[in-house]
Amino acid sequence: MAPLVSVVVPFYNVEQYIAECLESLAAQTLNDIEVILVDDGSVDGSRRIAEGFASRDPRFTVVRQPNRGPGPARNEGVRWARGSYLAFADSDDVVPVDAYEVLVSSLERTGSDLACGAVRRMADGELSPSSLHDKLFRREVRRTHIMDRRALVRDRTVWNKLYRKEFWYEHRLRFRQGIYEDVPLSMRAHVLAASVDLLPEVVYHWRRREAGGASITQRRAELPNLADRLEAIRAVRSFLQEEAPELTRSFDGLVLEKDIVFLFQALEHAADDELEPLLDLARQWLAVLSPAVLATAPSLRRLELHLVERGLVKELRRVREFRRSSEEAARIVPRGLRRVGWYGDYPYFRDRSLRIPDAVYDARDEIKVLARVEECRWDGQGFAVVGEVALHRVERRPRKIEVWLSDGSRKVPLPSRRLGPGRLLAEIDPRRLRRGGPTWRLHAQVETRGLVMEGCFRDGDGSRTWRLSVPGWSRTGMDITQ
């Protein structure tokens, strides 16, 4: 009888880690699985460990092939799969015991083509959020799609997912040759799926290796690795431009946020004789990405890209060191008298020898209003709200602050007075809120040196928007809850 889930695990020289991975698979609360172990030409003790599991547990099967890389190894495993669902695990990672039970339950309930779950990074025996996945799986969303949730371009790993095998074969999904074989396939699956389930449960522990040599992804600053990553990026962009052009800019933005960093790291540590091929590869990277996305990158990233494009490696290294040494985001400062610009306070600004355009440093769009409520108290006549207002990354205190309440259709200006630098007290007369609400948000408008910005107040710890809720018409304001 065919199993419900087929789990494909390629392995190559992972003697120190594979046992922990296979133990986590053997312990799954969903017992109806098969585990297909594809030996990609290992020369250490990995095969012996895999064969030991296969000899003790009939659900485990070992398949051998010459070393061809993780993509072909996964394709070979799929060829052997008998289950209704497909899953993948890397042999140095760990799968939480209830992962496949959670994923199968979702797909059988919704009929979606794939289900995806949250991921944790694993290092030194500790788990931490995966920055790539963290914001995607904070709540359950069933039967959605990447065109409706474009942040899913970040979900480009294959092992936090469960796929219907009929969907896999219908769309002829296959892994490409090369190191970053999962990125193009993950994007194809998201676009081609009729619907996708997103689950907040953690279904995968992604290891950051501590011993036994760095993994493929940890060697990401090596030239061949960077070249292969570029090919994967090209493959994804080619597919998106044909099938889902609306997602191209989102994908390019992710490349600028995540992937390009490995290129910078390579240039930082390269020997002199390695620089020319790296710079040539870097220019190929920049030529691939959308000019619009490059132009709208954050100012410090634009400076790094500008230096790479001009081959200014020494200057790039200084800017990278500046980025790491800044405990918080670097300051944004005003420059000019009649026409005031707001620029990142980074190295080489208006350096006469380098002549980097001011536009590279332009950070006006990165400024935002930071407003929070410290205290709200009833004084017998109305509410007195004490708050703090500042501009993110700007040391200069706002010159002028106006505050008001809004229920989405009405705007009620509030009298306020300063209590000190950036602090104010606003007075709320509940009689002015009649025939409005029931929920009101507190807004601020800030003016300083030609800059005018608006923002909503948040609660004391900044975790959520601060609101006044009026459950019914209030004569005294005493029934207004916060």
Description:
- GO terms for molecular function: hexosyltransferase activity.
- Residues 6-140 form the Glycosyltransferase 2-like domain.
- InterPro entries: Glyco_trans_2-like, Nucleotide-diphossugar_trans.
- The protein is of the alpha+beta class and 482 residues long.
- The chain is built from 13 helices and 20 strands.
- Strands 1, 2, 3, 4, 5, 6, 7, 8 and 9 form a nine-stranded mixed β-sheet that branches. Strands 12, 13, 14, 15, 16, 17, 18, 19 and 20 form a nine-stranded mixed β-sheet that branches. A two-stranded antiparallel ribbon has the order 10-11.
- A hairpin with a 4-residue loop joins strand 12 and strand 13 (383-391).
- Helix 6 runs parallel beside helix 7 (223-243) and helix 7 runs antiparallel to helix 8.
Describe the secondary structure blueprint for this structure.
Elements: E1 5-11, H1 18-26, E2 33-40, H2 46-56, E3 60-65, H3 70-80, E4 85-88, H4 99-110, E5 114-123, E6 126-129, E7 141-144, E8 161-164, H5 165-170, H6 182-192, E9 196-207, H7 223-243, H8 248-269, H9 275-288, H10 291-295, H11 299-309, H12 313-325, E10 332-335, E11 341-344, H13 358-361, E12 369-378, E13 383-391, E14 400-406, E15 411-414, E16 416-420, E17 423-428, E18 439-448, E19 451-458, E20 467-469
Parallel strand pairs: 1-2, 1-4, 2-3, 5-9, 12-19
Antiparallel strand pairs: 4-8, 5-6, 5-8, 7-9, 10-11, 12-13, 13-17, 14-15, 14-18, 16-17, 18-19, 18-20
Helix pairs in contact: 6-7, 7-8, 7-9, 8-9, 11-12
